[in-house]
Design brief:
Chain lengths: 500, 500
Amino acid sequence: MQDAIAALRSLEHKNYAYRYAQSVINFDGETVAPADSAEGRAEAIEVLSRAQFDLLTDPSVDQLLADADAAADSAPDAEQVHAEVRELRRMLRQIRPIPADEYAAYERLTQEALSAWARAKKASDFASFAPWLEKLVEGRRRQAAQIAPDKDPYETLLDQYEPGLTIEKCDKFFDTLRAAIVPLLEAVKTRGSAIRTDFLDQEWPVSGQRALSQKVMELWGLDPSHCVLAESEHPFTDGFYSKDVRITTHYMPRDVLSNLYSVAHEGGHALYELHVDPRLDYTILSGGASMGLHESQSRLFENLVGRSRGCIRLLWPTLKQLFPSQLEGVTEEELYRAANRAEPGLIRTEADELTYCLHIMVRYELEKALIHGELAVADLPAAWNARYKEYLGLDVPDDARGVLQDIHWSQGNFGYFPSYALGSAYGAQAMADLEKTIDFDAMYAAGDLAPLRQELTRRLWHYGNLKETGWLVESLCGGPFDPQYYVDYLTSKYTELYNL
Amino acid sequence: MQDAIAALRSLEHKNYAYRYAQSVINFDGETVAPADSAEGRAEAIEVLSRAQFDLLTDPSVDQLLADADAAADSAPDAEQVHAEVRELRRMLRQIRPIPADEYAAYERLTQEALSAWARAKKASDFASFAPWLEKLVEGRRRQAAQIAPDKDPYETLLDQYEPGLTIEKCDKFFDTLRAAIVPLLEAVKTRGSAIRTDFLDQEWPVSGQRALSQKVMELWGLDPSHCVLAESEHPFTDGFYSKDVRITTHYMPRDVLSNLYSVAHEGGHALYELHVDPRLDYTILSGGASMGLHESQSRLFENLVGRSRGCIRLLWPTLKQLFPSQLEGVTEEELYRAANRAEPGLIRTEADELTYCLHIMVRYELEKALIHGELAVADLPAAWNARYKEYLGLDVPDDARGVLQDIHWSQGNFGYFPSYALGSAYGAQAMADLEKTIDFDAMYAAGDLAPLRQELTRRLWHYGNLKETGWLVESLCGGPFDPQYYVDYLTSKYTELYNL
C-alpha cells in the first residue's frame, strides 16, 4: 500500500519540477531577462507546460489517485495523503477537459501577451495590445466552457482563484462594500478635516528607498537566506517552495510610499509562503491556498500592519535617518495621516484602503462582461474610463494609467481581482479577532512582530493547501466570514482620521 | 519525408525547452536566488534532467534520426539536417550508456555540490567540500567508463569539451607552451624593465565600475535588448538562444581590472552566442561549438582586443572620467603596461597572458590525476600548493585562493580547463590572420569594432554547431591549427613590453 503513496509522491515531485521551472522562467522574464527575449521564453513554456499537462492527465493517474486514497488511511500522514489526492483531482477537473495542444498554446500565449502588454503599457498604446487581449479572453472563455459546459464561464474562473466563490456571492459582497464606502468617501470629501500631503511629491533617492525596503523585510521577519527582493515593472511574489520565495518591487523616484507599501504587501505574501509546513514541500499542497487567502495576508501586512500608527512609529527613525531633508518639518502623525489619506486616484496598487475596493469593482464588472461576451475588447478602454469617472470621479488621461495598468489580464488571469477585495475583508475580520489575544501596541513597542507571525502560522500559514479554503478562512478569521468586520473597520478608521 | 524532419525538429524543440529551463535555473541560482535554496533547485534539476534524458534516449529516437538523415538530401537545408542528426548522435553516444537514474542523480549532485563549494570557498574550508568532490570525481570516472570502456576516462571527458582532443595532443601542446613561457617569464623577472603598478591597489568605487562595464558592453557591440549583465561569485556566460544571452561579473572594490577584463572576457563569449544564425535556434546546433572555440572568442576579446593599446586608448577617456582621482598622474601607456604586466599570481581569472597557461597546466595535471585515480581528493590541496610553488613560485596562503578558487570541478566539469589554453592559442593564430585584412589601428581609431565582428561572424560565429570542430578551428584561424602563433605572439609582446 505504501507503494501507492510513493507513486503519488513521485508524480507530485515531477509536477513540482515543472512548476518550479515555469516559475523561475517567469520570475527571470519579469526581473532580469533582456527586453527582447520573450520568444525563447514562450517556446520553452509551451513545451514545459505541455509536459506537465501530459504528466498529470495521463490515464494512469486516476488509478494512482484511487490507490493512494485507499492506502491513505493506514498511512501515518493520512490527512495529508487524502488532501494531496483531493487537490490533484481538483486540478485534473480544471485541466483535463482542455485539449492538450490548446492548453500549451494558451500558456505560450500568456508569455507573448505579457511582453506585448509591457510594450503597450510603455507606449500607452491599447490598440497594440487589443489583439492579444482578444485571444486571451476568447481562450479562457473556451476553456471555461470545456471545464463546465453548463456553468457560467466567469464563475468557473472565479472558482479557480477562490474555491466556492460565485457571482452571486461577489455581487452581494461588493454591494455591501459599495453601500458603506460610497457615503464614507462622500463624507470625507465634503466634511473631512484636511490631511497634509505637500511633502509626498518630491525626490526620494532610490538608494534610500532600497535601504527602506531592507528595513521592512527585516521588520516583517523575512529571512534573507530564503527570500530575496528583486525589481520588476509590476510588483509580485512567487514562492518556489518553502525555502525559496521571491518578492519584487518597483521604485518610483518621486513616491516613497509606492515602494514602501509594495514591499509591505509582497512581504505579506512571502511570509505566508515561507511558513508553509516544509513537510508539504514538493507536493501539490505546498504554497499558500486560495488567492483570497493569499491576498488577505498581503493586504493585512500592507494596511492593517504597515499603515498602522504602531508600525509607522517603528519605521519613523529609519525614515528620518534615510530621508532627513525630505522629512524636515514633517511629524510622525502627519506621515501616518498622509499614508492613510482617502483620495480617489488612477492607480489601484497605490490606492488607499477606502477607495481600493472601488478599483476592484471596476475590474470585476469589466472582466465579467468580457468573459460573458457582453463587452468587446475594442470597447474596453471607454468602459474603463466611464467607470473611473462614475466610481472615482476621475478622468483617465491615458491607457497606461487606465486599462493597461495591471498585469493580470495579460497573463490570462480573469477572475483574480475579486480576491483582493475578499482578502482585504478576510484580513480585517482576522485582525478584529487577533486583537483579542495579541497586544499590538506592546508588539510594535517591542519592535518584533513574532507574536503576529506565530498566530498567523497557527491559524493559516503552516497548513498550505492541506485544508479546504472554507475551513482555512474560518480558522484565520476566528469564525464564519462576515464582511461587516471590514465595513466596520473602514468606517471607524476613516471617521477618526477625518473627524467625520 | 518532410514528416521525418518535422519529427526531428519537434524532438530538438523539446530538448531546447529542457535545456532552457535548466539554464535559467542555473543562472538564477548563481545570481539572485537566496543563499539557502539549493535543495529546491536540486530537486527540480533532477526531474528535468531525467525528463530530458528520457526524451533523447527513447528507443524510437534511433529510427527518427535514421529517417531524418535519409530525408535530408531532398530537403532545402540538407546540410543543417545532417548536422542536427550528427550532433544528436554525438550526444546520444555520451549519455545513453549512462543509466538514467545515475545520469539524473549526477545532475542533482552538481547542484548540491555547487552550493557546498560556494560555502566552502567563503570559509576557505576544503574539508567541507572534499566529500562532494569525491562523489563528483567518482561519478565522472564511472560515466567515462560507461561511455567508452576501453578508452582513457580523462580523454573521454576531454572529448566532450573539445571533440577530438586527446591527452597526447594536450601534453604536446602544453610542452610547447611551457618551453616558451618558462624562459620568457624568467627573463621578465631577471632583466625586464620595471612596470608601474602602484596605482592599481586603491578604492575603485563600484558605481564607476558598473558604468565601465556598460561602456565595454557598448564598445563590444552587445545589444542590451538581447544581452544583460548580472553579478555572481564566479563570472560566466550562458546563451539561452541567439536572442537571449546572459553574462555575469564580480565587482572587487580595490581592483578595477578584475571586472573590466571579466566583462571583456564574458562579452566575447556573448558575442559568439548572439551571432549564431537564428535559423539554428531551438535546434541542437544553436549556440557556440566546442569550449576551445568558445574560449578562443572570450580570450580574444579579453586579451587581444581588450588589452591592446588601441582598445585602452579607446577606453581611456571613459576611465579618466569615471576615476579622475584614481588615475591622477597615471598615463594611458602606464595603464596599458599595468594591464599587461606579467606577474605570477594566485588567481587564474586575474592572471596575465604570460602566466595564464601555467594556471591551466596545474589544473590539467591535477584533474587528470584525479580522474585516473592517481591522486586522492584528500591530497589535492597539497598537490595544488606544490604546483603553484613549482610553476609560479608562490606559496598559497589558503584554499579559497588555492584549490577552491574555480567553480568548474564543483559543477562536475573535469576536462574543461585545457579549453582555455587551447582557445587562447586559437585566438592568437586567428588574430595573426585577421591582421592581414583588418586595419586594427583604424578600427580602434574609429571606435567601432564592426569590422572584427563581421569577420568573426563570417569565419565562426554564425555557424553555431553546423560544422565539425576541426573545420571551424581552421576557418577561424585561416589554416591548420599551429600553437607556434601563440608562442610567437607571447614572445613578441613580452619582449617589447619588458625590453628583453
